[in-house]
Amino acid sequence: MSKPAAGYIGTLFILILISQMIQSCSPKITPYTGENLFKSNTGSPDYTRLEFWAAHPEKWDPSDSVPAPLRKNIKEKIADVFFLHPTTFTDEKYAEQANATIDDPYLNKKTDYGSILYQASVFNEACNVYAPRYRQAHLQMYYTTDTAKAVAAFELAYQDIKSAFEIFLSRRNPDMPFIIASHSQGTTHAKRLLKEFVDGTPLQEKLVAAYVLGIAVEKTLYTNLPLCRDSTSTGCFISWRTYREGYEGRYVSKTDTSIAVINPLLWSPDPVLAAKALQKGAVLYKFNKIYPHTQSSRISGNALWISKPHFPGGVFYVTKNYHAGDFNLFYIDIREDVARRIKYFNLKQE
After folding, report:
1. What is the pTM of this model?
2. 3-state SS assignment for residue 80
């Protein structure tokens, strides 16, 4: 089981959490009406009800928010995205509780104004966004020595996601292409979801791409689902984990070549330096501000390595682990890639 970086709740993420509480009442982002306040009578999710979706095209939610500089862009929903959010159940005082409850209002708000706003919104220009709530495993389940407890925790979370995906498949337009996207714990589950539902199945024919970030994805994991080779590849997957040059850790190596890594400034697995001039724009703790040309990037071993990003407040972010920024440091790059890749997918269908 791949583990997320221990620095997940780093300075950048804390800044995001502070700012999201302020911005949640701001007219600069889509107003949210409180669907995170609900009760489950059984303790299990019911994905036929909108409350059990953090994002869904049939309701307004933070995934519908668009950074101010992008609001004049034409939005054409030409695909669906099934997005799996990262771990937000992180409070140490609940470390003995293996899984979150599905109707915890604090966690749901934390998810909605964290991952859903700052990550899932990447896809809203070209996609209908679906993001299920699920009984996520506590962050400690990645580190506990109680293996049986951890396995059970992740299994429960996955079964929720599997149920949500089955509802997603049964109710969406089957002729529309789709994307699977995820981060951190979401990727832990997306890896399995892709293996069971997409790899080598008829469903793969409708897959534009999978953006599975923040957890190591083995190159040999799939039989028929390849790593994307360039910005026009479809029916493939994309993955990376972001660290600043000089980082050292147990789960990163510059000699291990078994893990799939794509450079999001080049959209290829080639281990060449991509200059910061290629970076289209980051969206960080100020959602309505785009920061272009913040960092260069290159692939080495099993990770993506970047130069120290230049953005306001960056001097205080001393850690070299940029797990929290896997999406946000490349927000515009991903957004443009999604639209481009869907168009290439549709051209190939003609």
Report:
1. 0.91
2. strand
